[in-house]
């Protein structure tokens, strides 16, 4: 991160692939939907590169494994309803916290940062999942993929958090696992840090335009602490 820049006063943290390994939940819900459509199950390695652009895109990509565009349009509403029903029934059952997530949130809070969670996951899935995994109490603000008119990679959700916090984007860092998070952050004028263990649409993490790769949220907190100690 640029030295001499403003101190970082808030962090906007992504959910899927950054705090929680949720592909096992997606596997259960998507295969429940596929079974309802009389389609065979798919594996996590097929699902992982499809995660991160929100539910509509995910359902369309999964249906495209078997159906042409006209058939996808014809079954989309039924498939989405089935997916939502299955997801809500299993939400968090198999998802796990990545190492040092809670420790990282604690360290960020101890640095005095305000915390927001911005995810492309629908808010109806996000809220119960954050509760179930003990993540909810850490966040002052949470936006899901359908909370606002646009989702990441559009900068709008990040700009909204900056407005809500009354902070300039240059005093805010986004922490995420994918190019989505980085593109949104760059367009908003926020710093961006990337974790290497999540889901980046099947692309190497090094291809992401970020201010640094950090192995965990705890490492992100250490980097931010070093940055703030040299900032004006
Ligand atoms: O698209 C999703 O459902 C998850 O996206 P996220 O990585 O923004 O949390
Ligand atoms: Mg993500």
TrEMBL record:
Mg(2+) binds at residues 14, 16, 177. It is an enzyme of class 3 (hydrolase). One of its GO terms (molecular function) is phosphoglycolate phosphatase activity. Its cofactor is Mg(2+). Pfam families: Hydrolase. Keywords: Carbohydrate metabolism, Hydrolase, Magnesium, Metal-binding. Its EC number is 3.1.3.18. It catalyses: 2-phosphoglycolate + H2O = glycolate + phosphate. The active site is at residue 14. It comes from the Bacteria. The keyword Magnesium applies. Pathway: Organic acid metabolism; glycolate biosynthesis; glycolate from 2-phosphoglycolate: step 1/1. Transmembrane segments: none annotated. Specifically catalyzes the dephosphorylation of 2-phosphoglycolate. Is involved in the dissimilation of the intracellular 2-phosphoglycolate formed during the DNA repair of 3'-phosphoglycolate ends, a major class of DNA lesions induced by oxidative stress. Belongs to the HAD-like hydrolase superfamily. CbbY/CbbZ/Gph/YieH family. This is Phosphoglycolate phosphatase. It comes from Massilia aerilata. The lineage of its organism: Bacteria, Pseudomonadati, Pseudomonadota, Betaproteobacteria, Burkholderiales.
């Amino acid at each position: 991160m640029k030295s001499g820049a403003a101190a970082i006063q808030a962090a906007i943290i992504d959910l899927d692939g950054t705090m929680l390994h949720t592909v096992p939940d997606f596997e259960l819900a998507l295969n429940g939907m596929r079974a309802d459509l009389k389609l065979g199950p798919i594996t996590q390695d097929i699902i992982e590169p499809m995660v991160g652009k929100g539910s509509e895109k995910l359902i369309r990509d999964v249906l495209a494994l078997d159906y042409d565009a006209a058939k996808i349009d014809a079954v989309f509403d039924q498939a989405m309803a089935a997916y939502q029903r299955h997801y809500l029934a299993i939400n968090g059952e198999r998802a796990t916290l990545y190492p040092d997530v809670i420790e990282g949130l604690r360290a960020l809070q101890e640095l005095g940062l305000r915390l927001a969670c911005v995810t492309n996951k629908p808010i109806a899935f996000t809220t119960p999942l954050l509760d179930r995994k003990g993540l909810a109490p850490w966040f002052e603000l949470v936006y899901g993929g359908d909370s606002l008119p646009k989702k990441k990679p559009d900068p709008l959700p990040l700009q909204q958090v900056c407005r809500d916090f009354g902070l300039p984007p240059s005093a805010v860092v986004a922490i995420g696992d994918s190019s989505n998070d980085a593109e949104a952050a760059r367009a908003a004028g926020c710093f961006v840090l990337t974790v290497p263990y999540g889901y980046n649409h099947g692309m190497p993490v090094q291809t992401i335009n970020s201010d640094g790769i950090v192995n965990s949220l705890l490492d992100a907190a250490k980097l931010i602490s070093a940055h703030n100690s040299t900032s004006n």
